[in-house]
Known about the structure:
By secondary structure, chain A is α/β, with parallel strands linked by helices. Chain A folds into two domains: 5-119, NAD(P)-binding Rossmann-like Domain (Rossmann fold, 3-Layer(aba) Sandwich), CATH 3.40.50.720; 130-278 and 309-342, Dihydrodipicolinate Reductase, domain 2 (2-Layer Sandwich), CATH 3.30.360. In chain A, 39% of the residues lie in helices and 24% in strands. Chain A has a seven-stranded mixed β-sheet. The first copy, chain A, is globular. The two termini of chain A are 22 Å apart. Chains in contact: A-B, A-C, A-D, B-C, B-D, C-D. Strand 12 (251-255) of chain B pairs antiparallel with strand 13 of chain C.
Amino acid sequence: MKSKLNIGLIGAGRIGKVHGETIAFRVPEASLIAVTDPDAATAQAVAQRCGIPRVCATADEIFADKSIDAVLICSSTNTHADLAIQAALAGKHIFCEKPIDHTLEKIDLALETVTRHKVKMQVGFNRRFDANFARVREAIVSGEIGTPHLIHIISRDPGPPPISYVKVSGGMFLDMTIHDFDMARFLIGDEVTEVYASAGVRVDPEIGKAGDVDTAVILLRFANGVIGTIDNCRQAPYGYDQRVEVLGSKGSIATENVYPNRALVSTAESVRRDLPLNFFMERYLDSFEKELRAFVEAVLADKPTPVTAADGRVPVVMALAAKKSYLEGRPVKLSEVAAEASLETVSR
Amino acid sequence: MKSKLNIGLIGAGRIGKVHGETIAFRVPEASLIAVTDPDAATAQAVAQRCGIPRVCATADEIFADKSIDAVLICSSTNTHADLAIQAALAGKHIFCEKPIDHTLEKIDLALETVTRHKVKMQVGFNRRFDANFARVREAIVSGEIGTPHLIHIISRDPGPPPISYVKVSGGMFLDMTIHDFDMARFLIGDEVTEVYASAGVRVDPEIGKAGDVDTAVILLRFANGVIGTIDNCRQAPYGYDQRVEVLGSKGSIATENVYPNRALVSTAESVRRDLPLNFFMERYLDSFEKELRAFVEAVLADKPTPVTAADGRVPVVMALAAKKSYLEGRPVKLSEVAAEASLETVSR
Amino acid sequence: MKSKLNIGLIGAGRIGKVHGETIAFRVPEASLIAVTDPDAATAQAVAQRCGIPRVCATADEIFADKSIDAVLICSSTNTHADLAIQAALAGKHIFCEKPIDHTLEKIDLALETVTRHKVKMQVGFNRRFDANFARVREAIVSGEIGTPHLIHIISRDPGPPPISYVKVSGGMFLDMTIHDFDMARFLIGDEVTEVYASAGVRVDPEIGKAGDVDTAVILLRFANGVIGTIDNCRQAPYGYDQRVEVLGSKGSIATENVYPNRALVSTAESVRRDLPLNFFMERYLDSFEKELRAFVEAVLADKPTPVTAADGRVPVVMALAAKKSYLEGRPVKLSEVAAEASLETVSR
Amino acid sequence: MKSKLNIGLIGAGRIGKVHGETIAFRVPEASLIAVTDPDAATAQAVAQRCGIPRVCATADEIFADKSIDAVLICSSTNTHADLAIQAALAGKHIFCEKPIDHTLEKIDLALETVTRHKVKMQVGFNRRFDANFARVREAIVSGEIGTPHLIHIISRDPGPPPISYVKVSGGMFLDMTIHDFDMARFLIGDEVTEVYASAGVRVDPEIGKAGDVDTAVILLRFANGVIGTIDNCRQAPYGYDQRVEVLGSKGSIATENVYPNRALVSTAESVRRDLPLNFFMERYLDSFEKELRAFVEAVLADKPTPVTAADGRVPVVMALAAKKSYLEGRPVKLSEVAAEASLETVSR
């Protein structure tokens, strides 16, 4: 077992910078060897901040560097699958931001390549590492709440992204709900077989003109009979709203939002708290660190990654099914979208 | 305007006794004149407890009593519609427990008779009078949370009723969800146009054998575009679970359960509360008083009742649609179950 | 054992009306036979509201009525002790509002008379019957939190009473803290031996001019070594604040305030609740009913009352000691104010 | 203004390691140049972990190193004052763990030297940087709760330290309450003039035999009339309990404990949370980072440190007064312990 993992960072934008800093400052078992970004200045800035010795003009240089063991793919979504394939061909282990791609064809090609070349791949479903959701999973695994019957996931953004982003996002189900699809199957530990999506444009008519929705409830049916809902809205005026509740045969577990402090102010108007942590960078900061630690540890110890490539594929199937359900106004089985045989079981 | 309302109590079982005591001890503007029950001893006991001067052998005697202004119909469900019709024919105002009936034919006949004979009718959707749900309604009416987008209703019983009851209950949608159907349209102030029910047998296989379900999520679509869910389970191990959450354009409002005390115990094991008030008699005690006060006041002041006969009909339509949706595995429009013309708007 | 207790109501002001309605409408085991009040119209109004057959010009008429078993003394404080003495002489059982008197001399005379004439006496420390404080007591008695070490009582009014009232109130310690002194010894189940009062005028300088304080912390030392604090303020801008916390060897128990509803509103400004129930009539409504039920039951069953005459005396001793402590700026032992021999143990 | 601060770390034990890692991994504006510890292996381990180039045999070597701008004094308490004096003589800026010393003589000598040699000094009252307490301070400064009237500080450890530690700790007031004394004056922004300490041995008789107490309530009187309490116990069975509440003329602010997650589990037994973060390393982790950032920033920008040397002195005066109060059973003015002239005002 190697004692230290050499990493190349592909993409130095918002999430790339976060991952770079995490590896540089908080994961002593890994070293950043090289960084690349379409914007050279961006790559240079992250290199300086994180003490990365080498700035590469292209990802190819990173793949060619024999000293690099693994790559973090933090580039734009449409490049994820291609880069993952190239990384696999170069024998690099892969940490890839979600989603792997918006089409199953490219995802399947990437997964096949990864499998064939026996590299490890972890997909960036960081919320699995959040202390709150991890606690819910623990309650289910340990039997603390018995056999799960119902699950409700609330996932609302503080405000909608720019319309320019909405247009290339792949739609709310692929862009936003995908995290919740992953959360649903991670928590319940079983696969969803059918979805029914009820959705609309409530927040901004421009989103509707762009062919997308901004508000939705997706009803899930799991193979084991559990029924679930996902509540999505592009705008929660009070901030980022991320909660889950599971009812089981012995009890329930529900998580509240996370706040910047635990102060309660009582005045002649009300008894109040400050607003919850406002967006994912604050709310999920710890989980970004934990997912990278887990990736580094998995590669070094030659263990399975905690969020496999297959785990990156299923939520895309779910999103495509949700989209079809919304457009056709009826429940849609996942097998209508992807051959059931290719739906692997949840890996944990 | 009369200063005091003379009331006849029909049915002196569990809910009849509660309503009798409320009128006797807490509503000075009304007097209980007579009581009847198929079981004479039951009628006699309530008469003694509540100081009711006359015990009648049948409801007919109550209808024939010219001194009686109004009746409380607290008998078994299958008699509600017939008794309401007889009461209307006798010119008595009617407070009727929910549901009016399990069939639209009998409900429509009752409503027609009530309308023709110009008596007032109020249906026992007591939860509208609960301080928590009333506060949610207020937040919506006042604009405190803006335009509603999403509503979630959680409604779980502490444990399932006896199988003998399940068999005559009309099914969970008509027996249990009916309160939540009323709550949904009461809070949002608009009609549901389509439902999709996902349900199963999770708690007790005997319930399944009796042809019913015990766990369900019903997805609602309102005419105004609001999307809603109702979460029902016949068994919440921690007790009676009754909550609602509404997300609007300016904010959200969510109610928690009600507890017997506000004590927090911290030990080496956990930081904990006692369980919530365990069932509807405790949880909704205040609402039973408020609904009867409202009924007495409406009759005395010749004002509309706060929960009309029409309000009693729509939730039955919703329940029938939910049942159809569950059986056919597809979203069902309410217009498939009842002619749209007969779906009156919410009265409040 | 008599099956029904005949009661005379002495004083039909605010608290007299509450107690009258409770007996009339909620305690079937008792009947109101007569009422008196210095203001005849007040007495008449309560008689009509509560169906009391007889309005007496004076308390003497009530004492002379052989059909009356017990009296509720709800008159002004300065008459409590004299009326209790007269009631005892007439053989009536006594429910007396707190405090019995502001001087130990009159209290001791009343207690002696009550004891000699073997009538029961209960003092109106209603908060013992509040579900929250009762739960704290239960946690201590049951050993749920082990041996108590520390107790903190928070007791703040929404706003100060009129200055005219302050002037005749006997001072904050005798008027307001007296409830908390009772609560401290009730919860801990032991006697306080020493108090140290730190106090000031923070809310209204007029209160200071009237020779009183409006803000105080009283440090308590119990015989068993428990240390306690009472936090009093005449003005909590957010309303009536009534909480307690006890730390024991196995854990702690803390009560929160009681709110009119359990709704949480989240907007762009804050996550908030409505204000707590605003004053004692709302906050302690249930406890008023429970204390009278307990009194009626104790007399009918010839059991000790749950708050004895002695329980009415000790908090006055504590208040006098607190006042002395404040004036002299030093800890004061209760034995400096009253002979220790006369400090009876807590009765429960 | 220098762009980077060179730091020497004196003492590499528990807190030294925390501060070392913070500087190494989270404060890019500072560099660790050297480390020393009486135990060479300890120093070596921290040097390796934090990438510190030089391990010194003694603090003298650090003071002699011209490249070092500032020192972190993390050694045992009895060495703090002497090291601070030496550092000042060597012209090094000082971050010193609390308390500076247990005697005013040595503290005053250290402060005088620091002042004379014009080096900056910050004392390690890290809790001021905790998000919760900072929020309380903000509420007071901003006027959100008006003029403060009352403050309550709850500060309880999960369990007592070893008796060997108790014996050299200087006693609970100097060892544990000292943080709360600082918090009281920091939050209120004014000086305490008098304390009254009520204390006892409740947790472990061995602590009593060692001449110390384990449970106490200290009543504070501020110059501006605010009344406060500090509640200390060496053992809270449910874990580390760190809360504060302030009542002001316009409202109150209260902080709750911090929990490892925001999950609520409801079962047939209770509605419960996991225990709060168990001790200061978890609870105050963020504050350790913030205080060092503030120190580095203050030195680099030549601004006053946020917790001055004088701020390190006053809590010791308060602790000595509390001890005297406890021993003599009476309120003690701080001026009895230290000449009032030397009580500087709060620096912030």
